[in-house]
Fold:
Amino acid sequence: MMRSTGYALFGLVLWLSVSGCHRDHEQSMLHPAAEASAHIAWLWWILFGICTAVFGSVMALLWVAIRRPSLTSADGDTAKVANVDAATVGSGRRDTRPLSPLGNGFVIASGIVFPAIVLLGILILSVNSQFVLTPPETTRTVRVVGHMWWWEVRYPDEQIVTANEIYIPVGEPVRIELTSADVIHSLWVPNLQGKMDLLPDQTNVTWLQADRPGRFRGICAEYCGVQHAKMGLLVVALPRDEYDEWIAQHQQPPIAEEIELVSRGREVFFASTCHNCHAIEGTSAVGVRGPDLTHMGSRQTIGAGLLPNNRGNLIGWISNPQALKPGNLMPRTHVAPDDLHALAAYLESLK
Amino acid sequence: MSSDSSSEMRLQQTWAPARGFPGVLAEVNNQIIGKRFMITAFVFFMLGGVLALLMRIQLAASDNHFLGPQTYNELFTMHGSTMMFLFAVPFLEGLALYLLPMMIGARDVAFPRLTAYGYWLYLFGGVLFYASFLFGAVPDIGWFGYTPLSTSRFTGLSTDFWLLGLSLVEVAGLTAAIEIVVTILKFRAPGMTIGRLPLFILSLLVVGVMILIAFTVLLTATVLLELDRATNTAFFDVERGGNNLLWQHLFWFFGHPEVYIMFLPATGIISMVIPVFARRPVVGYVLIAAAILVTGFVSFGLWVHHMFAAGLPALSMTFFTAASLMIAIASGVQVFAWIATLWGSRPELKPPFLFALGFMFLFVLGGLTGVMVAVVPFDQQVHDTYFIVAHFHYVLIGGVLFPIFSGVYYWLPKMTGRLFSDSLGRLNFWLTFIGFNLTFFPMHIMGFLGMPRRVYTYPRHLELDGYNLLSTFGAGLMSIGAVVFLYDLVRGLTRGEAASDNPWDGDSLEWSVSSPPPNFGFIRFPVVTGRHPLWQADVTEAPDDSALGRLREALAFEPQTWRGTMVTDATDATPQAIQYLASPTFVPMWAAVGTLAAAVGVLAQAYILSAAGLAVLIISVFIWLLPRESVMRRLRESELPASTGLPVLSSGSVATGWWGMVGFLTLLGSSFAALIYSYFYIRLFSPQWPPSGSDLPNLPLGSAAYACLVVAGVIHCWGMSRFRAAAESSARAALVIGSAVAVGFLALQGWDWSRQNFTHQSHAYGSLYFVISGTLSLLVVLGLAFSLTCLKRIGRTDRRDLANVTLHLEMTQMLWATISVIGVLVFLTLYATPYLL
Structure:
C-alpha cells in the first residue's frame, strides 16, 4: 500500500506536468520562455529522472528486504554470529542472535560508492549550470527598488520611472539591478529566471531575457511583511519596435485628454492628499512614498499586480485600498462618488 | 532476602519523588523531568498543529477570507517557531533525559538540578512566547526573523516576545546538551565503551556537542538583535554601518545544524527499533556511527545553501553544494545499513516498526529533493516556494516526527507499564502517512506553478485551487491521526494490559528494568560486554568472584541515604568514583524565575525588574553551586569509599563537574567565535574602518589591559600547581594576586571605554567594540567570583573535602585559562587588526 501510494503520487506529478499545457501559465517554472529558465527546467527534469530512479530502487530494495522469506546467516552457518569482540570472547559470552546475511560490503557499495557516483554527476551538472547561467553582456539596465509591497522600476538610461511593470525587448538580455528601500524582498519571475534578493545593504544583479513576446508574472519571494502575498509584478516582453515605441511614449510627459471629466479629476487629485505620496511628472505632484503615476493610464495592473487596470477597479481601489490589500500603506480616501469617478478618469488618461 | 527488601525500601525512600504542592516544583529526577519535557512538548505540538490546520483552511481556496494577512503571518511564524523550538528539540531532549540513564546503566543524569532548571526555562519561554496572544502582539516575522523586518523600525513588541521567549528555550537547550554529553561520558555501565554505545546514545552524544555550538551562535545572534532593538546598537542597521546578511549567516549557522540536531536522534531511534524488529544486530554499526559523526561535522558547513538567492559569490556557493551532497552520502549509509539489517528478517508490522518504515519512505523522498535544492540554479527557482515547504516537511515530519512516533510506541510500554493497542497504532500510522502525503506532495507542484512561501492567499488565475484543497484535506486526515493517537494514549493508560519488562525482546539495558521503572532505574549496575547486552547470554551478570562482581554487590542498593550513581571512565568505562546527585530542591525553579523576570523586564522595558530577576538568578546560582555543609558531612561520613574502593568526592576528569565546566567553556568559545565573526563580517563590508570621526584604538592602553588578563590567567595556573604541591598559602596568594591583576584589566578597559569619542550607538564599529569588550569584562567578573569563592575554601575546609576543593580550583583555573585565550583573540580583533588590515 505504501509503495502504491508513492507510485500514485509520482504518477500525479507526471500527469500534471505534462497535461497542464492548456493553461496560461504566466507564473510557472515548468513553462520557460527564456534560455535561463529553460535550462533550469531541463535541469529539473534530469534531476527528477535521477531521483525517481534512486527512490524507486531504494524502496524496491526495502520492500524485498522485509518481504522475502526468512533468511539468516545462521542457517547452517553457526560461525557467523554477532559482534564477538575481544572482551566477549574472553569471558566466553557471545551474542545469541544470528546476523543478517548482508554485511558492511553491501552498505559500503550501495550507501557510499553508488551515491558518490550519482552525486558527483549531480555536482558536475550543478557547476556546469552555474557556468551556463552566467550573466550575458548587455547594455540595457533596469533598476528595481523593492518597497513594502510594490516595485519601483527605473530605466536610468532612458530616464523613465514606473512601477510594478518591467518592459523588455524580446530576445535581448536586460541587466536588472536590485536593491531595497526597506526590508528584504526577492524578485521571482519563474517563466524567465531564478530568483534574486533585493537587499537594503547592497545592489544585487541578475538579468531577464524573454525568447518570445508575452506577459510573465512575477512575485516577491522573500517574506517582507503583512502584504508579502500581494506584491506582484508583470514582465512584458515586446518585439523590438513595439518596445522602442513604449520607451518613446514613456519618455514624454503624460498627455491627458482634455475633456471635462478629466480636468475635474485633475482638480480632485491635487485638492486631496494623493500628491503627498505619488508623483506625476510635469506637475506639482512629487511624492515618493507610493508608486510613480506618470503614465498610470498605460499600466496593465493596479495594486502591484493585484487587479486589471480599469475604471471600476481603480474606483474600488482608491475608495478603499484596505479592503483589497489590507495593511498596505495607502489610506482610505474620502472622496465623493462623482469626484472618485473623475479622479479615475484622470488617472486613466495619463498615458 | 528480607535485608534486600528493606534495603530496596530505603533506596526507594531516598529516590521518592517529591509529592504535593509545592513539592512537585522541586522535582529534579530525570525520569519525571523527562516526562514533563515530553508532555509539554506534545502540548506545544498540538498547538502548532492547530495553527497549521487554520492556515490550511485559509489556503484551501484562492482569495479566501477565513484569516486576514496579519493573522496568517502570525500563525505561520508561531507554527514554525513552535515546531522547531518548542516541539521537536525539547521532545527529543525529554526522551533523551528520560531514557539516557536507563540505557547506559546509571541512576540519573549528571546534573539533576540543571535538568530541572532547563525544564523551567523551557516551560517559561514557551509560555512567554504564547503570552504574546494575550497582549495582541503575536510575532509575525517568520521563524527565521530576518533583519531588517525584525528590527525596531518595522516591528514592535511582538518581535521582543519572539526573541526573549526563544532565548529562554535556547538556554534550556544548552543545559540539556551539557547534561546529555556529560551523562554519556561519565555514567556508562562498566564495559560500555564508546564502541558499544547504543546508536541512539551515540547520536545524542554528537547532537549534544552540536547544540553547544549551534544554539550558542543563535543565542548570540538573538542577543545582538535584542540589543539593537532595546539599546539602539547598530549591528543590523545599514545606515550606521551594520549588515543584514550577518543575521542570515548567524541564523543559518545555527539553522542548518538544527535540522540535524533533530534528525540525528531520530535516526538513532530508528537504529534502536529496526534491529529489535529484525531480531538481529544492526548491520554496519561502525559505518552508522561514522555517518552520524560526519553528518554532525559537515552540517556546520552547509548554512549558505539557505542563501543561494541572496547574491553571494558563485564560487562560494559551489563549495556549499558539494558539502550538501556529501551529507547525502552519510544519510545513504544509514538507510542501506537499515535495509541490510532487515534483509530477509520477516519483521512484524507493529506500530513502532511501521513508523520506522514510513520514515524511510518519506525521508528518502525528502532527502532526494534535498539533493535537488543543493543544485544552485535549481534552488534559485524553487527557493522560498512551496517546493521547499514540501521538501522540509518530508525531512522534518518524515525524518523526525515519524521516528518520534516510532520511538514513542516503542518505549511507551516501558514508561507507563502498559501495552497499547496495535490496531489503533496502525490506524494512526495510515492516517498520518496518507494524510501527510496528500498534504505535502502536491506542494512540490504548487512551487513549480508559482506559489511562493508565506503567502496568506493566492490569486485564482494561478489555478492552484485543486492542489491546495487536496493539501487541506490531507491535513485534516493527519489531525484525525493525532486524535486517534491521543485516544490510544488515554485508553492504554487507563485500560491497557500490563506490559512485561521487555515486551519487544529489546537488546538495550532499559529493557532489563521493570516497566514502569523505579526512579533510580537500577539496584545493581549492569555490566556490559557487547553492543546488544540483553541479547547476550547472562550479560548483566559479572562473575561474583571478579573484582567487578564484588564492586557490583558492594554497590547494590547503595548509596542508600543519598542519591548517587557510579562514575566510570569517559572512554573505556571502568569504575572511577561515586557521584552524589542532588535531591529535590526549589533552587532551580527560583533560578528560572529569576531568568524569566530578567527577560520580561527587557520585554516591558522595566529594567528594574530585570535587575531584580538577575539578582534572584545570581543568588540562586550561588546557593546551587557552593557545597552545602549538610551534604559534605554525609559524604565525609560515607562508608562507601571503604567498602568499594571508590571515592565519593572526585576532581579532574573523573568528576562530572569538570566535564560540565568543559561544556560551559565550549559554549563561551562558540559565543565569542560568533562575536568575532560578526566583527570581521561587518568590517569586510565597511568602506572605512574605523568609521570616519573615530580614532584608531589605543594600542598601548589596550596592550596593557589585555596583558593584565594574560598575567591573571598565568598566575591562576601557577596557583593551581602550587595547590597540587600542597603549598596552600602560595595558592591563596596566587588567587589574590591573580584577581587583583584581573581587576586591573577591568580598570584599564573601563578607562579605554571612557575616552572613546563614540558610543555603542554611534555606528556598528562602536557597537562591536563595546559589546565584545563588555562581554569579556562580564566574563572576568565571573572569573573573579570563582576566584574569591575558592579563596574562602582553600586551607579552611576539612581535609576529607580536599577533592572537592581541588575541583573548585581546577574549574577556576580552566575558566581563567579560557578567559586569557579569549582575551588575546579579543585584543587582536579589537585593538590590533584595525592597524594591520
In short: Chain B has a mean pLDDT of 94.
